[in-house]
Amino acid sequence: MTAYIEMAKPWQTRVCTGLREMVHRTLPEAEEALQYGKPHFLRDGRPSAVIHIARDKVSFMVLHAAGIEAVPGLLRSLGNGDRKAIDIREGDEVDHDFLADILRRTTGAR
Q: Is the dihedral of CA 22, 97, 66, 29 positive or negative?
């Protein structure tokens, strides 16, 4: 995962590092794995979140999120709604507390 993050632009690396730290604070038992070429965070062997670096953004996706409402302009629904994602662009502030709350709600973490 470190190599994936470090290949990005400096601002993306900072965003990804912050997201990674937030996941581990929220889910201390989370394991990291590269799946489908992207960093996944696993809890009890199940993917819980994914980081994806694109040309002009970083996307953070939470799985098992059917019960989480999409927030227009912030948190979008993917597929059948079981996945939710936030897109972060250069200069955006990342609300780690908001994302940690979603992650706790989708994984049952306390």
A: positive
Residue ranges in the chain assigned as alpha helix (H): 2-6, 10-26, 96-107
Q: Which region, left, alpha or beta, applies to residue 56 given φ > 0 means left and ψ of -120 to 50 means alpha?
A: alpha
Give the rounded distance of the alpha carbon of 60 from its chain centre: 3
Q: Can you give the pTM of this predicted structure? A: 0.94
Name the DSSP letter for residue 74.
Answer: T
Reported for 41-48, long-range contacts at CB under 8 A and 24+ positions apart, including other chains, are 43/107, 43/109, 48/23, 48/103, 48/106, 48/107
Can you give the pLDDT of all 110 residues of the chain as single tens digits? 999 999 999 999 999 999 999 999 999 999 999 999 899 999 999 999 999 999 999 999 999 999 999 999 899 999 998 999 999 999 999 999 999 999 999 998 76
Question: Residue 3 contacts by C-beta under 8 Å, 6 or more apart in sequence?
Answer: none
